[in-house]
Amino acid sequence: MTGETRRAAVLGSPIAHSLSPVLHRAAYAAMGLDAWTYDAVECGEDGLPGLLDGLGPEWAGLSLTMPLKRVALGLVDTVSDLAVKVGGANTIVLRDGRRHGDNTDVHGIVTALTEAGVKAPASALVLGGGATAASALAALAGLGTDEAVLAARTPARAAEAAQVGERFGLAVRVVPLDEATAHLPAELVVSTLPGRAADAFAGPVAAYGAALFDVVYAPWPTALAAAVERAGGTVVGGFPMLLHQAVRQVTLMTGRNDVPVEAMRAAGEAELARRS
């Protein structure tokens, strides 16, 4: 297998700053897959069907980021039950002329939290109501959580994410984002908000001593993460999630289980340090 030319890539828009090429290339190097390549390709929803149709037999798989995860479900031959229930595929495995859609985001979140010692939080508050929040709710259900509060800027638009949680057996209550602090304390707070959007919650979340999972990985730490860390709380950033979802993708695309997690972690951390 080491000498067989195979290609993979991450697709999305914007894609230039994706960390996926660094992670996947580190895996290939450590696994001796010298003829494997992994690139970043700018691609929007309208361009995905044509791009998929143009792929040759040398292609092993694709990682998908925003805004492609949902539209991909209708462009594959088979799809995992998990991807269907979450409502999005972040992975397409290409094999024998067929496309299989899967979701490794949930695995990434579960593994990142478990690695940090966060297991089966009795209560959870999720900030944000988009696709990442949906994956977070699925992950919480997988960890054994029974109920969660979903705080979103526009509660009506978060209904889809709430439904995902409910499909996994989670009781989800949707509230406006500006009422989120009224639902503290929570054993785990999950922020799926971008950039500095969660800064205002730093004080209240830290005051209650909750564990925090913040999906942002750069710039790091966020004000929210720094406040919780200062207060002595457990903090999990977005990088471990990104790492572990990529590990699962490498397994799916290569068919191998000897994926070098620590080599990938070291490469990703070095790249983040270089960019900071």
What features would you describe in this structure?
By secondary structure, the chain is an alpha/beta fold. The chain has helices spanning 20-31, 48-53, 81-86, 105-115, 131-143, 159-167, 202-207, 223-230, 238-254, 261-275, and strands at residues 6-12, 36-42, 59-64, 78-79, 91-95, 98-102, 124-127, 147-152, 171-176, 188-191, 211-214, 235-236. The strands form two sheets. It has a six-stranded mixed beta sheet with strand order 2-1-3-5-6-4. The chain has a six-stranded parallel beta sheet with strand order 9-8-7-10-11-12. Helix 4 (105-115) packs across helix 5, helix 5 (131-143) runs parallel beside helix 6 and helix 9 crosses helix 10 (261-275). The longest helix is centred in the C-terminal third of the chain and has 17 residues, at 238-254. The chain is globular and about 55 Å long. The model has no long low-confidence stretch (mean pLDDT 96).
List the helices and strands and how they pair.
Elements: E1 6-12, H1 20-31, E2 36-42, H2 48-53, E3 59-64, E4 78-79, H3 81-86, E5 91-95, E6 98-102, H4 105-115, E7 124-127, H5 131-143, E8 147-152, H6 159-167, E9 171-176, E10 188-191, H7 202-207, E11 211-214, H8 223-230, E12 235-236, H9 238-254, H10 261-275
Parallel strand pairs: 1-2, 1-3, 4-6, 7-8, 7-10, 8-9, 10-11, 11-12
Antiparallel strand pairs: 3-5, 5-6
Helix pairs in contact: 1-9, 1-10, 4-5, 4-9, 5-6, 9-10
Strand content: 15-25%
Counted by DSSP, the helix tally is 10
End-to-end Cα distance, whole Å, is 37 Å
Determine the fraction of residues in helical runs and give it as a percent range.
25-40%
Residue-averaged pLDDT, rounded?
96
The tally of beta strands, per DSSP, is 12
Category from helices, strands and their pairing? alpha/beta
- What is the alpha-carbon Rg in Å? 19 Å
Largest sheet: 6 strands, mixed
Q: What is the subunit arrangement here?
A: single chain
Shape: globular
**pLDDT < 50 runs, ≥5 residues:** none
Strand order of the largest sheet: 2-1-3-5-6-4
Q: SSE order in H/E notation?
A: EHEHEEHEEHEHEHEEHEHEHH
